[in-house]
Amino acid sequence: xxxxxxxxxxxxxxxVATTSLIPTSAKLTPNFYNKxxxxxxxxxxxxxxxxxxxxxxxGASLLRLHFHDCFVNGCDGSILLDDAAKFTGEKTALPNxxxxxxxxxxxxxxxxxxxxxxxNVVSCADILAVAARDSVNINCPSSGGDDKIEPLDATPRxxxxxxxxxxxxxxxxxxxxxxxxxxxxxxxxxxxxxxxSHSSAFGKxxxxxxxxxxxxxxxxxxxxxxxxxxxxxxxx
Length: 236
Prior knowledge:
By secondary structure, this protein is mostly helical. The chain is built from 10 helices and no strands. The radius of gyration is 18 Å and the shape is globular.
């Protein structure tokens, strides 16, 4: 049985190792939509929760979608753009083709948010970031009904640190997972040891890392545009 290829925890290890090398700068506030559209964030959470209820592993997919968006020229929602006659987007790039998923959920969120706000004020990049956050808060399970996947740890429906404890016992499901812990005192070994016994530290570091990633060159002010359809720019 093939294994699910993405783990939010594996993503986090890779992320912690790389974000310190990438500059971040932005003037962002978590309270922006309180006045612009108070219904925006609750609406995003509602649609994400519905999507996870239909398919439990979509939470991990939305988190991965945000990750792939941010690591290509910053968090600008560009991964959501479809290819066009004179434009080749990121969806069909080798790391993403037939791999990243969750685009239909973003479409549903965009439609619901525009209806709730009665105007087009919530950017696709913000939708992607908030959907990723809510996916984790709703527990971001890593398995679902597809018979071609396998849970990566003993608690696939909880966002916890059992994954790291399994690595200490050499029970990582995938070879790439177990490579994070070889028992040779490497930097990743130390992280695995630390998080396996300090779940609160993992949660705190994960939150900080997600915020730092979300600050990677987002478009603010008059830069960019709030797309009516996340799959294409407004003048198409």
